[in-house]
Protein backbone atom coordinates (compact mmCIF):
# COMPACT_ATOMS: atom_id res chain seq x y z
CA UNK A 1 0.00 0.00 0.00
CA UNK A 2 1.57 3.26 -1.17
CA UNK A 3 -1.46 5.51 -1.12
CA UNK A 4 0.55 8.73 -1.15
CA UNK A 5 2.40 8.13 -4.42
CA UNK A 6 1.36 10.01 -7.52
CA UNK A 7 0.84 7.96 -10.64
CA UNK A 8 0.27 9.09 -14.20
CA UNK A 9 -1.77 7.06 -16.66
CA UNK A 10 -0.98 8.57 -20.06
CA UNK A 11 -2.77 7.70 -23.26
CA UNK A 12 -1.43 8.46 -26.71
CA UNK A 13 -3.35 7.90 -29.88
CA UNK A 14 -2.58 7.37 -33.53
CA UNK A 15 -1.69 10.99 -34.25
CA UNK A 16 1.42 10.65 -32.07
CA UNK A 17 2.36 7.16 -33.26
CA UNK A 18 1.96 8.05 -36.93
CA UNK A 19 4.23 11.10 -36.72
CA UNK A 20 7.83 10.02 -36.19
CA UNK A 21 9.09 13.39 -34.91
CA UNK A 22 6.13 13.78 -32.55
CA UNK A 23 6.57 10.24 -31.28
CA UNK A 24 10.31 10.66 -30.60
CA UNK A 25 9.63 13.90 -28.77
CA UNK A 26 6.81 12.38 -26.73
CA UNK A 27 8.86 9.33 -25.73
CA UNK A 28 11.70 11.53 -24.51
CA UNK A 29 9.33 13.52 -22.33
CA UNK A 30 7.54 10.39 -21.11
CA UNK A 31 10.85 8.74 -20.17
CA UNK A 32 11.92 11.86 -18.27
CA UNK A 33 8.68 12.10 -16.28
CA UNK A 34 9.58 11.20 -12.69
CA UNK A 35 7.62 8.73 -10.58
CA UNK A 36 5.10 6.03 -11.34
CA UNK A 37 3.57 5.97 -14.79
CA UNK A 38 1.68 3.83 -17.29
CA UNK A 39 1.59 4.37 -21.04
CA UNK A 40 -1.49 3.26 -22.98
CA UNK A 41 -1.24 3.42 -26.74
CA UNK A 42 -3.73 3.21 -29.54
CA UNK A 43 -3.06 2.17 -33.05
CA UNK A 44 -2.69 4.78 -35.71
CA UNK A 45 -3.01 4.24 -39.41
CA UNK A 46 -0.42 1.47 -39.50
CA UNK A 47 -2.94 -1.29 -38.84
CA UNK A 48 -5.16 -0.07 -41.65
CA UNK A 49 -2.19 0.19 -44.02
CA UNK A 50 -0.83 -3.26 -43.16
CA UNK A 51 -4.35 -4.66 -43.26
CA UNK A 52 -4.81 -3.34 -46.79
CA UNK A 53 -1.59 -5.02 -47.87
CA UNK A 54 -2.82 -8.27 -46.30
CA UNK A 55 -6.22 -7.92 -47.94
CA UNK A 56 -7.94 -7.41 -44.57
CA UNK A 57 -10.47 -4.61 -44.87
CA UNK A 58 -12.25 -3.75 -41.71
CA UNK A 59 -15.97 -3.35 -41.60
CA UNK A 60 -17.44 -0.56 -39.52
CA UNK A 61 -20.88 -0.37 -37.95
CA UNK A 62 -21.90 2.94 -36.35
CA UNK A 63 -18.30 4.14 -36.52
CA UNK A 64 -16.99 1.09 -34.69
CA UNK A 65 -14.70 -1.40 -36.27
CA UNK A 66 -16.00 -4.95 -36.40
CA UNK A 67 -13.26 -7.23 -35.13
CA UNK A 68 -13.53 -10.43 -37.10
CA UNK A 69 -10.89 -13.15 -36.76
CA UNK A 70 -8.61 -11.60 -39.41
CA UNK A 71 -8.91 -8.14 -37.88
CA UNK A 72 -8.09 -9.52 -34.42
CA UNK A 73 -4.95 -11.11 -35.85
CA UNK A 74 -4.09 -7.83 -37.53
CA UNK A 75 -4.41 -5.72 -34.38
CA UNK A 76 -2.58 -8.36 -32.34
CA UNK A 77 0.31 -8.14 -34.82
CA UNK A 78 0.36 -4.38 -35.22
CA UNK A 79 -0.75 -3.05 -31.82
CA UNK A 80 0.42 -5.95 -29.64
CA UNK A 81 3.54 -6.63 -31.71
CA UNK A 82 5.00 -3.92 -33.88
CA UNK A 83 3.90 -0.76 -32.08
CA UNK A 84 4.07 -2.05 -28.50
CA UNK A 85 7.44 -3.78 -28.89
CA UNK A 86 9.02 -0.82 -30.67
CA UNK A 87 7.76 1.67 -28.07
CA UNK A 88 9.33 -0.49 -25.35
CA UNK A 89 12.68 -0.78 -27.14
CA UNK A 90 12.75 2.97 -27.67
CA UNK A 91 11.84 3.72 -24.06
CA UNK A 92 14.56 1.36 -22.85
CA UNK A 93 17.06 3.29 -24.96
CA UNK A 94 15.93 6.40 -23.06
CA UNK A 95 16.59 4.75 -19.70
CA UNK A 96 12.93 3.98 -18.97
CA UNK A 97 12.37 0.47 -17.55
CA UNK A 98 9.43 -0.26 -19.85
CA UNK A 99 7.56 -3.54 -20.14
CA UNK A 100 5.08 -4.08 -22.97
CA UNK A 101 1.87 -5.84 -22.02
CA UNK A 102 -1.60 -6.77 -23.14
CA UNK A 103 -4.43 -7.63 -20.78
CA UNK A 104 -3.52 -11.32 -21.08
CA UNK A 105 -0.05 -10.84 -19.57
CA UNK A 106 -0.20 -11.46 -15.82
CA UNK A 107 -3.98 -11.61 -16.34
CA UNK A 108 -3.87 -7.81 -16.07
CA UNK A 109 -7.19 -7.07 -17.77
CA UNK A 110 -9.80 -9.75 -18.25
CA UNK A 111 -12.65 -8.23 -20.22
CA UNK A 112 -16.05 -9.45 -21.39
CA UNK A 113 -16.58 -10.17 -25.05
CA UNK A 114 -19.21 -7.72 -26.15
CA UNK A 115 -22.59 -9.48 -26.22
CA UNK A 116 -24.21 -9.83 -29.64
CA UNK A 117 -27.35 -7.69 -29.87
CA UNK A 118 -28.30 -5.89 -33.08
CA UNK A 119 -24.63 -5.85 -34.04
CA UNK A 120 -21.99 -8.55 -33.61
CA UNK A 121 -18.84 -6.57 -32.95
CA UNK A 122 -16.78 -9.74 -33.03
CA UNK A 123 -13.67 -10.06 -30.84
CA UNK A 124 -14.20 -6.83 -28.92
CA UNK A 125 -13.74 -6.69 -25.18
CA UNK A 126 -15.71 -4.43 -22.87
CA UNK A 127 -13.54 -3.57 -19.88
CA UNK A 128 -14.64 -2.29 -16.47
CA UNK A 129 -12.40 -0.85 -13.77
CA UNK A 130 -13.11 -3.89 -11.60
CA UNK A 131 -11.64 -6.13 -14.34
CA UNK A 132 -8.19 -4.61 -13.79
CA UNK A 133 -5.98 -6.80 -11.61
CA UNK A 134 -4.62 -4.04 -9.39
CA UNK A 135 -2.23 -6.26 -7.41
CA UNK A 136 -0.38 -7.19 -10.62
CA UNK A 137 0.13 -3.50 -11.43
CA UNK A 138 1.32 -2.88 -7.86
CA UNK A 139 3.86 -5.71 -8.32
CA UNK A 140 5.13 -4.06 -11.49
CA UNK A 141 5.47 -0.64 -9.89
CA UNK A 142 7.15 -2.07 -6.80
CA UNK A 143 9.66 -3.72 -9.14
CA UNK A 144 10.34 -0.39 -10.85
CA UNK A 145 8.60 -1.28 -14.10
CA UNK A 146 6.76 1.10 -16.41
CA UNK A 147 3.86 -0.76 -18.05
CA UNK A 148 3.23 0.01 -21.73
CA UNK A 149 -0.25 -1.26 -22.52
CA UNK A 150 -1.46 -2.28 -25.96
CA UNK A 151 -5.20 -1.90 -26.60
CA UNK A 152 -5.86 -5.61 -26.16
CA UNK A 153 -7.50 -7.50 -23.31
CA UNK A 154 -8.41 -11.17 -22.98
CA UNK A 155 -11.45 -13.21 -22.09
CA UNK A 156 -9.75 -15.71 -19.78
CA UNK A 157 -10.68 -18.46 -22.21
CA UNK A 158 -7.72 -18.17 -24.50
CA UNK A 159 -8.83 -15.31 -26.73
CA UNK A 160 -7.45 -11.83 -27.02
CA UNK A 161 -9.99 -9.04 -27.38
CA UNK A 162 -9.72 -5.71 -29.16
CA UNK A 163 -10.39 -2.97 -26.58
CA UNK A 164 -10.55 0.79 -26.98
CA UNK A 165 -7.37 2.45 -25.66
CA UNK A 166 -9.27 5.34 -24.01
CA UNK A 167 -11.35 2.79 -22.11
CA UNK A 168 -8.24 0.92 -20.99
CA UNK A 169 -6.64 4.17 -19.80
CA UNK A 170 -9.77 5.17 -17.85
CA UNK A 171 -10.33 1.74 -16.28
CA UNK A 172 -6.68 1.35 -15.26
CA UNK A 173 -6.66 4.88 -13.83
CA UNK A 174 -9.82 4.28 -11.80
CA UNK A 175 -8.68 0.88 -10.57
CA UNK A 176 -5.25 2.16 -9.50
CA UNK A 177 -6.77 5.15 -7.71
CA UNK A 178 -7.44 2.78 -4.81
CA UNK A 179 -3.65 2.70 -4.24
CA UNK A 180 -2.26 5.87 -5.77
CA UNK A 181 -3.10 9.50 -6.42
CA UNK A 182 -3.84 9.05 -10.12
CA UNK A 183 -3.75 11.66 -12.84
CA UNK A 184 -5.22 10.47 -16.12
CA UNK A 185 -3.72 12.20 -19.14
CA UNK A 186 -5.14 12.08 -22.66
CA UNK A 187 -2.68 13.31 -25.26
CA UNK A 188 -4.48 15.00 -28.00
CA UNK A 189 -3.81 16.96 -31.18
CA UNK A 190 -4.88 20.32 -29.72
CA UNK A 191 -3.54 22.36 -26.84
CA UNK A 192 -6.52 21.37 -24.71
CA UNK A 193 -10.27 21.82 -24.67
CA UNK A 194 -10.89 25.02 -26.65
CA UNK A 195 -13.29 27.79 -25.77
CA UNK A 196 -13.53 28.75 -29.44
CA UNK A 197 -12.85 25.74 -31.66
CA UNK A 198 -11.51 28.02 -34.42
CA UNK A 199 -8.87 29.50 -32.05
CA UNK A 200 -6.22 26.89 -31.19
CA UNK A 201 -4.94 29.03 -28.30
CA UNK A 202 -8.30 29.44 -26.55
CA UNK A 203 -7.57 26.64 -24.10
CA UNK A 204 -9.89 26.38 -21.12
CA UNK A 205 -7.46 25.80 -18.22
CA UNK A 206 -9.93 24.11 -15.87
CA UNK A 207 -13.37 22.59 -16.27
CA UNK A 208 -15.49 21.46 -13.33
CA UNK A 209 -19.02 20.07 -13.60
CA UNK A 210 -20.58 23.40 -12.64
CA UNK A 211 -18.83 25.09 -15.60
CA UNK A 212 -20.43 22.90 -18.23
CA UNK A 213 -23.81 24.61 -18.72
CA UNK A 214 -22.21 28.04 -19.31
CA UNK A 215 -19.59 26.58 -21.66
CA UNK A 216 -22.32 24.91 -23.67
CA UNK A 217 -24.26 28.15 -23.80
CA UNK A 218 -21.17 29.91 -25.22
CA UNK A 219 -20.90 27.30 -27.95
CA UNK A 220 -17.70 25.78 -26.63
CA UNK A 221 -17.54 21.98 -26.12
CA UNK A 222 -18.38 21.07 -29.67
CA UNK A 223 -16.79 18.35 -31.79
CA UNK A 224 -17.55 15.41 -29.58
CA UNK A 225 -15.84 16.88 -26.53
CA UNK A 226 -18.92 16.44 -24.31
CA UNK A 227 -18.68 12.62 -24.08
CA UNK A 228 -14.98 13.01 -23.23
CA UNK A 229 -15.89 15.40 -20.42
CA UNK A 230 -18.58 13.04 -19.15
CA UNK A 231 -16.04 10.19 -19.09
CA UNK A 232 -13.52 12.42 -17.33
CA UNK A 233 -16.00 13.42 -14.62
CA UNK A 234 -17.00 9.79 -14.21
CA UNK A 235 -13.33 8.84 -13.73
CA UNK A 236 -12.97 11.58 -11.11
CA UNK A 237 -16.09 10.44 -9.29
CA UNK A 238 -14.61 6.93 -9.29
CA UNK A 239 -11.40 8.10 -7.61
CA UNK A 240 -9.08 9.67 -10.18
CA UNK A 241 -7.64 12.93 -8.86
CA UNK A 242 -7.89 14.81 -12.12
CA UNK A 243 -7.99 14.26 -15.86
CA UNK A 244 -5.75 16.27 -18.16
CA UNK A 245 -6.30 16.78 -21.86
CA UNK A 246 -3.40 18.33 -23.71
CA UNK A 247 -0.81 18.01 -26.46
CA UNK A 248 1.76 15.20 -26.42
CA UNK A 249 4.57 17.68 -27.06
CA UNK A 250 3.88 19.49 -23.78
CA UNK A 251 3.97 16.44 -21.53
CA UNK A 252 7.00 17.73 -19.62
CA UNK A 253 4.78 20.48 -18.21
CA UNK A 254 3.21 17.81 -15.98
CA UNK A 255 6.31 17.55 -13.85
CA UNK A 256 7.34 21.20 -14.21
CA UNK A 257 4.25 22.42 -12.42
CA UNK A 258 2.55 20.24 -9.87
CA UNK A 259 -0.72 22.00 -10.59
CA UNK A 260 -0.28 20.96 -14.22
CA UNK A 261 -1.55 24.38 -15.32
CA UNK A 262 0.71 24.63 -18.32
CA UNK A 263 -0.51 21.32 -19.73
CA UNK A 264 -3.81 21.67 -21.55
CA UNK A 265 -7.11 21.46 -19.75
CA UNK A 266 -7.59 20.12 -16.24
CA UNK A 267 -10.87 18.37 -15.55
CA UNK A 268 -11.82 17.71 -11.97
CA UNK A 269 -14.82 17.66 -9.64
CA UNK B 1 18.75 -16.52 -3.82
CA UNK B 2 16.81 -19.74 -4.32
CA UNK B 3 19.64 -21.95 -5.49
CA UNK B 4 17.83 -25.16 -4.70
CA UNK B 5 14.82 -24.59 -6.94
CA UNK B 6 14.55 -26.48 -10.18
CA UNK B 7 13.78 -24.44 -13.25
CA UNK B 8 12.87 -25.60 -16.75
CA UNK B 9 13.76 -23.57 -19.83
CA UNK B 10 11.68 -25.10 -22.61
CA UNK B 11 12.04 -24.24 -26.26
CA UNK B 12 9.42 -25.02 -28.89
CA UNK B 13 9.91 -24.48 -32.58
CA UNK B 14 7.74 -23.98 -35.60
CA UNK B 15 6.66 -27.60 -35.88
CA UNK B 16 4.67 -27.24 -32.64
CA UNK B 17 3.33 -23.76 -33.38
CA UNK B 18 2.23 -24.66 -36.90
CA UNK B 19 0.23 -27.72 -35.80
CA UNK B 20 -2.84 -26.61 -33.87
CA UNK B 21 -3.49 -29.96 -32.17
CA UNK B 22 0.17 -30.36 -31.19
CA UNK B 23 0.27 -26.81 -29.87
CA UNK B 24 -2.89 -27.22 -27.75
CA UNK B 25 -1.52 -30.46 -26.33
CA UNK B 26 1.87 -28.92 -25.59
CA UNK B 27 0.38 -25.87 -23.87
CA UNK B 28 -1.73 -28.07 -21.62
CA UNK B 29 1.33 -30.04 -20.55
CA UNK B 30 3.44 -26.92 -20.17
CA UNK B 31 0.77 -25.25 -17.99
CA UNK B 32 0.58 -28.36 -15.80
CA UNK B 33 4.33 -28.61 -15.27
CA UNK B 34 4.95 -27.69 -11.62
CA UNK B 35 7.57 -25.20 -10.48
CA UNK B 36 9.59 -22.51 -12.20
CA UNK B 37 9.61 -22.47 -15.99
CA UNK B 38 10.34 -20.35 -19.03
CA UNK B 39 8.92 -20.90 -22.51
CA UNK B 40 10.96 -19.80 -25.52
CA UNK B 41 9.23 -19.98 -28.86
CA UNK B 42 10.40 -19.79 -32.43
CA UNK B 43 8.36 -18.78 -35.40
CA UNK B 44 6.97 -21.42 -37.66
CA UNK B 45 5.78 -20.89 -41.18
CA UNK B 46 3.36 -18.13 -40.25
CA UNK B 47 5.94 -15.37 -40.66
CA UNK B 48 6.84 -16.61 -44.12
CA UNK B 49 3.17 -16.86 -45.08
CA UNK B 50 2.28 -13.40 -43.78
CA UNK B 51 5.47 -12.03 -45.30
CA UNK B 52 4.45 -13.34 -48.70
CA UNK B 53 1.08 -11.67 -48.40
CA UNK B 54 2.83 -8.41 -47.46
CA UNK B 55 5.29 -8.77 -50.32
CA UNK B 56 8.23 -9.27 -47.94
CA UNK B 57 10.42 -12.06 -49.21
CA UNK B 58 13.32 -12.91 -47.01
CA UNK B 59 16.77 -13.32 -48.38
CA UNK B 60 18.95 -16.09 -47.06
CA UNK B 61 22.74 -16.29 -47.00
CA UNK B 62 24.29 -19.57 -45.90
CA UNK B 63 20.92 -20.76 -44.61
CA UNK B 64 20.44 -17.72 -42.44
CA UNK B 65 17.72 -15.22 -42.99
CA UNK B 66 18.87 -11.67 -43.65
CA UNK B 67 16.88 -9.38 -41.39
CA UNK B 68 16.34 -6.19 -43.33
CA UNK B 69 14.04 -3.46 -41.97
CA UNK B 70 10.91 -5.03 -43.49
CA UNK B 71 11.80 -8.49 -42.17
CA UNK B 72 12.42 -7.09 -38.70
CA UNK B 73 8.97 -5.50 -38.76
CA UNK B 74 7.51 -8.79 -39.94
CA UNK B 75 9.07 -10.89 -37.17
CA UNK B 76 8.20 -8.22 -34.59
CA UNK B 77 4.57 -8.46 -35.71
CA UNK B 78 4.37 -12.22 -36.05
CA UNK B 79 6.74 -13.53 -33.36
CA UNK B 80 6.54 -10.62 -30.91
CA UNK B 81 2.85 -9.95 -31.56
CA UNK B 82 0.64 -12.66 -32.96
CA UNK B 83 2.39 -15.82 -31.72
CA UNK B 84 3.65 -14.52 -28.39
CA UNK B 85 0.42 -12.78 -27.39
CA UNK B 86 -1.74 -15.74 -28.38
CA UNK B 87 0.44 -18.22 -26.48
CA UNK B 88 0.09 -16.05 -23.39
CA UNK B 89 -3.70 -15.75 -23.69
CA UNK B 90 -3.97 -19.52 -24.14
CA UNK B 91 -1.68 -20.26 -21.18
CA UNK B 92 -3.70 -17.88 -18.99
CA UNK B 93 -6.84 -19.84 -19.92
CA UNK B 94 -5.04 -22.93 -18.61
CA UNK B 95 -4.29 -21.27 -15.28
CA UNK B 96 -0.65 -20.49 -16.09
CA UNK B 97 0.42 -16.98 -15.02
CA UNK B 98 2.20 -16.26 -18.30
CA UNK B 99 3.80 -12.98 -19.34
CA UNK B 100 4.94 -12.45 -22.92
CA UNK B 101 8.26 -10.71 -23.34
CA UNK B 102 10.98 -9.77 -25.76
CA UNK B 103 14.53 -8.91 -24.72
CA UNK B 104 13.57 -5.22 -24.66
CA UNK B 105 10.99 -5.68 -21.90
CA UNK B 106 12.62 -5.04 -18.51
CA UNK B 107 15.88 -4.90 -20.49
CA UNK B 108 15.89 -8.70 -20.19
CA UNK B 109 18.27 -9.45 -23.06
CA UNK B 110 20.47 -6.77 -24.56
CA UNK B 111 22.29 -8.31 -27.50
CA UNK B 112 24.92 -7.08 -29.93
CA UNK B 113 23.94 -6.37 -33.50
CA UNK B 114 25.93 -8.84 -35.55
CA UNK B 115 28.98 -7.06 -36.98
CA UNK B 116 29.09 -6.73 -40.76
CA UNK B 117 31.88 -8.84 -42.22
CA UNK B 118 31.49 -10.67 -45.54
CA UNK B 119 27.75 -10.72 -44.96
CA UNK B 120 25.49 -8.04 -43.52
CA UNK B 121 22.87 -10.02 -41.65
CA UNK B 122 20.95 -6.86 -40.90
CA UNK B 123 18.98 -6.53 -37.65
CA UNK B 124 20.23 -9.74 -36.10
CA UNK B 125 21.30 -9.86 -32.47
CA UNK B 126 24.04 -12.10 -31.13
CA UNK B 127 23.24 -12.96 -27.54
CA UNK B 128 25.61 -14.22 -24.83
CA UNK B 129 24.63 -15.64 -21.45
CA UNK B 130 26.14 -12.59 -19.74
CA UNK B 131 23.71 -10.36 -21.70
CA UNK B 132 20.76 -11.88 -19.82
CA UNK B 133 19.61 -9.68 -16.94
CA UNK B 134 19.24 -12.41 -14.35
CA UNK B 135 17.84 -10.21 -11.58
CA UNK B 136 14.87 -9.29 -13.79
CA UNK B 137 14.08 -12.98 -14.32
CA UNK B 138 14.41 -13.58 -10.57
CA UNK B 139 11.91 -10.75 -9.98
CA UNK B 140 9.48 -12.41 -12.39
CA UNK B 141 9.81 -15.84 -10.76
CA UNK B 142 9.49 -14.38 -7.27
CA UNK B 143 6.26 -12.74 -8.41
CA UNK B 144 4.95 -16.09 -9.69
CA UNK B 145 5.26 -15.22 -13.38
CA UNK B 146 6.02 -17.60 -16.23
CA UNK B 147 8.03 -15.75 -18.89
CA UNK B 148 7.14 -16.55 -22.50
CA UNK B 149 10.01 -15.27 -24.63
CA UNK B 150 9.74 -14.27 -28.27
CA UNK B 151 12.91 -14.66 -30.36
CA UNK B 152 13.67 -10.94 -30.22
CA UNK B 153 16.32 -9.05 -28.27
CA UNK B 154 17.26 -5.37 -28.35
CA UNK B 155 20.43 -3.34 -28.74
CA UNK B 156 19.78 -0.83 -25.96
CA UNK B 157 19.65 1.92 -28.58
CA UNK B 158 16.02 1.62 -29.51
CA UNK B 159 16.16 -1.26 -31.98
CA UNK B 160 14.79 -4.74 -31.68
CA UNK B 161 16.98 -7.52 -33.01
CA UNK B 162 16.02 -10.87 -34.52
CA UNK B 163 17.69 -13.58 -32.43
CA UNK B 164 17.66 -17.34 -32.81
CA UNK B 165 15.27 -18.99 -30.35
CA UNK B 166 17.69 -21.87 -29.58
CA UNK B 167 20.35 -19.31 -28.69
CA UNK B 168 17.94 -17.44 -26.42
CA UNK B 169 16.97 -20.67 -24.67
CA UNK B 170 20.61 -21.67 -24.12
CA UNK B 171 21.74 -18.24 -22.93
CA UNK B 172 18.80 -17.84 -20.54
CA UNK B 173 19.37 -21.37 -19.19
CA UNK B 174 23.07 -20.76 -18.60
CA UNK B 175 22.50 -17.34 -17.03
CA UNK B 176 19.80 -18.62 -14.68
CA UNK B 177 21.91 -21.60 -13.63
CA UNK B 178 23.68 -19.22 -11.25
CA UNK B 179 20.45 -19.15 -9.21
CA UNK B 180 18.57 -22.33 -10.04
CA UNK B 181 19.07 -25.97 -10.97
CA UNK B 182 18.28 -25.52 -14.66
CA UNK B 183 17.13 -28.15 -17.10
CA UNK B 184 17.15 -26.98 -20.69
CA UNK B 185 14.57 -28.72 -22.85
CA UNK B 186 14.45 -28.62 -26.65
CA UNK B 187 11.16 -29.86 -28.04
CA UNK B 188 11.73 -31.56 -31.26
CA UNK B 189 9.83 -33.54 -33.90
CA UNK B 190 11.41 -36.88 -32.97
CA UNK B 191 11.34 -38.90 -29.78
CA UNK B 192 14.92 -37.92 -29.02
CA UNK B 193 18.37 -38.34 -30.49
CA UNK B 194 18.15 -41.54 -32.54
CA UNK B 195 20.71 -44.31 -32.69
CA UNK B 196 19.47 -45.27 -36.14
CA UNK B 197 17.93 -42.28 -37.91
CA UNK B 198 15.61 -44.58 -39.88
CA UNK B 199 14.16 -46.06 -36.66
CA UNK B 200 12.07 -43.46 -34.80
CA UNK B 201 12.07 -45.58 -31.64
CA UNK B 202 15.85 -45.97 -31.39
CA UNK B 203 16.13 -43.15 -28.86
CA UNK B 204 19.45 -42.89 -27.06
CA UNK B 205 18.39 -42.30 -23.45
CA UNK B 206 21.60 -40.61 -22.28
CA UNK B 207 24.57 -39.07 -24.04
CA UNK B 208 27.69 -37.94 -22.21
CA UNK B 209 30.80 -36.53 -23.87
CA UNK B 210 32.62 -39.87 -23.61
CA UNK B 211 29.84 -41.56 -25.61
CA UNK B 212 30.23 -39.38 -28.66
CA UNK B 213 33.14 -41.11 -30.46
CA UNK B 214 31.45 -44.54 -30.33
CA UNK B 215 28.10 -43.08 -31.45
CA UNK B 216 29.81 -41.42 -34.38
CA UNK B 217 31.53 -44.66 -35.26
CA UNK B 218 28.14 -46.43 -35.32
CA UNK B 219 26.78 -43.81 -37.72
CA UNK B 220 24.37 -42.28 -35.24
CA UNK B 221 24.44 -38.48 -34.73
CA UNK B 222 23.78 -37.57 -38.33
CA UNK B 223 21.45 -34.88 -39.65
CA UNK B 224 23.03 -31.94 -37.92
CA UNK B 225 22.69 -33.40 -34.45
CA UNK B 226 26.39 -32.93 -33.66
CA UNK B 227 26.26 -29.13 -33.37
CA UNK B 228 23.20 -29.53 -31.10
CA UNK B 229 25.20 -31.89 -28.89
CA UNK B 230 28.16 -29.52 -28.81
CA UNK B 231 25.85 -26.69 -27.75
CA UNK B 232 24.25 -28.90 -25.11
CA UNK B 233 27.62 -29.89 -23.62
CA UNK B 234 28.68 -26.24 -23.67
CA UNK B 235 25.51 -25.31 -21.76
CA UNK B 236 26.24 -28.03 -19.19
CA UNK B 237 29.84 -26.88 -18.78
CA UNK B 238 28.46 -23.38 -18.20
CA UNK B 239 26.21 -24.56 -15.37
CA UNK B 240 23.05 -26.12 -16.79
CA UNK B 241 22.26 -29.38 -14.99
CA UNK B 242 21.21 -31.28 -18.08
CA UNK B 243 19.80 -30.75 -21.54
CA UNK B 244 16.83 -32.78 -22.75
CA UNK B 245 15.84 -33.31 -26.35
CA UNK B 246 12.44 -34.86 -26.87
CA UNK B 247 8.98 -34.57 -28.37
CA UNK B 248 6.64 -31.76 -27.32
CA UNK B 249 3.81 -34.23 -26.78
CA UNK B 250 5.76 -36.03 -24.04
CA UNK B 251 6.57 -32.98 -21.94
CA UNK B 252 4.55 -34.25 -18.98
CA UNK B 253 7.16 -37.00 -18.57
CA UNK B 254 9.48 -34.32 -17.17
CA UNK B 255 7.49 -34.05 -13.98
CA UNK B 256 6.38 -37.68 -13.90
CA UNK B 257 9.92 -38.91 -13.47
CA UNK B 258 12.45 -36.72 -11.76
CA UNK B 259 15.19 -38.47 -13.67
CA UNK B 260 13.40 -37.43 -16.87
CA UNK B 261 14.15 -40.83 -18.35
CA UNK B 262 10.88 -41.13 -20.22
CA UNK B 263 11.41 -37.83 -22.05
CA UNK B 264 13.70 -38.20 -25.04
CA UNK B 265 17.45 -37.98 -24.72
CA UNK B 266 19.29 -36.62 -21.70
CA UNK B 267 22.55 -34.86 -22.39
CA UNK B 268 24.87 -34.19 -19.50
CA UNK B 269 28.52 -34.11 -18.56
TrEMBL record, chains A, B:
Pathway: Amino-acid biosynthesis; L-arginine biosynthesis; N(2)-acetyl-L-ornithine from L-glutamate: step 2/4. Substrate binds at residues 43-44, 65, 162. One of its GO terms (molecular function) is acetylglutamate kinase activity. It is found in: Cytoplasm. One of its GO terms (biological process) is L-arginine biosynthetic process via ornithine. Its main location: cytoplasm. Its EC number is 2.7.2.8. It comes from the Bacteria. Belongs to the acetylglutamate kinase family. ArgB subfamily. This is Acetylglutamate kinase. It comes from Thermoflavifilum thermophilum. The gene is argB.
